[in-house]
Amino acid sequence: MKPIITAELEIVALGTGSTSMSPYISEAVRAIENLGIKYQLTPMGTVIEVSSVDEAFNTAKAAHEAVMKKGAKRVVIHLTIDDRKDAPKDMDEKIESVESKI
Amino acid sequence: MKPIITAELEIVALGTGSTSMSPYISEAVRAIENLGIKYQLTPMGTVIEVSSVDEAFNTAKAAHEAVMKKGAKRVVIHLTIDDRKDAPKDMDEKIESVESKI
Amino acid sequence: MKPIITAELEIVALGTGSTSMSPYISEAVRAIENLGIKYQLTPMGTVIEVSSVDEAFNTAKAAHEAVMKKGAKRVVIHLTIDDRKDAPKDMDEKIESVESKI
Amino acid sequence: MKPIITAELEIVALGTGSTSMSPYISEAVRAIENLGIKYQLTPMGTVIEVSSVDEAFNTAKAAHEAVMKKGAKRVVIHLTIDDRKDAPKDMDEKIESVESKI
């Protein structure tokens, strides 16, 4: 079995004076793209598919730095990592697994 | 402006003896469907689009009850609610807002 | 067994122009106090102890409304609910359970 | 200003057959202690105080590995990092900041 870990990253920038987060989120997503990480934008965050927990953390770190570099003075990150060893599933398989049972 | 709130629901059932969550998640999603709530499955959770904070909580409650009814003895729910009053965006608009800036 | 549910609430106000969240969090905590809900402030959120999932949602709703009333135009709430039916534990018991094993 | 970052780590082990998480959480906490990281147990997670985002990720990684080593086949981690550059506050100061306004 190939090692696959799915994770989700949600980032907010505080104290920016604007309620719009997309200028910051887009920087984070660009950083994720630059790492060559497979990702999927959702209305509430960015889901990534990586091959190790290290890679999940490295991706989150790059995203965080990109938001800071954009000028945010306070950034709150929520990172969720789902590490399943017995039967790893990629992003599509996880959705299919639920859909097939609805 | 129409009131739109997006939220994400992530549910895990503990102590089931199985690492598979899809039997439980699918029950939660069915409960969300039964309420007529617009939703989108992601690899890490379920994003919903509602018209009030109350509706977000009611949806989460129905999902929680469905997972409990399926037999889980311990359920942990993560509910994220994004309530933007000045410029509410629906699920698609939130993604487009980021994509247009990448 | 008495029904006990523990939950955690984390709230951020976006677009306020200030990186400080305490003016908003304190309003949320006051709302929780007004409901007579047992709570514990942590450096990252507010843990509450309630007797039902409904009560957890009602408490989160009151906290959310208090932050909105304070003037926030966009509020993001993270609510985590831990509902354990087979052996419910209160806030102190949950900590003791871990500490006794370290 | 000294760099201080506060973070929260919540870990669940899935498919263990037991609703009790303390055998796993205690391993995670021991790993955090071994790193010499300042931490505070809460009823819903473990708050840590670190000096960089890297240290937050390294701590989460050590905790994750400890839970895996204990025998969990699927582990879901929720890591929240609050990185405030303009006026960093330690764990106690964050609580005082809210309490002083209630």
Protein described:
The structure is a homotetramer of 102-residue chains. By secondary structure, chain A is α+β, with helices and mostly antiparallel strands. The first copy, chain A, has one domain (5-99): 2-Layer Sandwich (Alpha-Beta Plaits), CATH 3.30.70. Chain A contains three helices and four strands, in the order βαββαβα. The first copy, chain A, has helices at residues 22-34, 53-69, 91-99, and strands at 5-14, 38-42, 45-50, 74-84. In chain A, strands 2-3-1-4 form a four-stranded antiparallel sheet, with helices on one face. In chain A, α1 (22-34) crosses α2. The longest helix of chain A has 17 residues, at 53-69. Chain A is elongated. Chain A starts with a strand and ends with a helix. The model of chain A has no long low-confidence stretch (mean pLDDT 97). β4 (74-84) of chain A pairs antiparallel with β4 of chain D, so a sheet runs across the interface.
Structural descriptors:
homotetramer, alpha+beta, 102 residues, 4 strands
Query: What integer is the average pLDDT of chain A?
Result: 97
The number of distinct structural domains of chain A comes to 1
Main sheet summary of chain A: 4 strands, antiparallel
Give Rg of chain A in angstroms. 15 Å
**Run of helices and strands of chain A:** EHEEHEH
Number of strands of chain A: 4
Q: What is the strand arrangement across the widest sheet of chain A?
A: 2-3-1-4
Q: Structural class, judged by helices and strands of chain A? A: alpha+beta
Instruction: Give the quaternary arrangement of the chains.
Output: homotetramer
CATH topology of chain A: Alpha-Beta Plaits
Q: State the shape of chain A.
A: elongated
Helical region count of chain A? 3
The name of the CATH architecture of chain A is: 2-Layer Sandwich
**Percent of residues of chain A in beta strands?**
25-35%
At the first level of CATH, the class of chain A is Alpha Beta
The percentage helix of chain A is 25-40%
User: Alpha-carbon distance between the termini of chain A?
Assistant: 27 Å
Low-confidence stretches of chain A: none
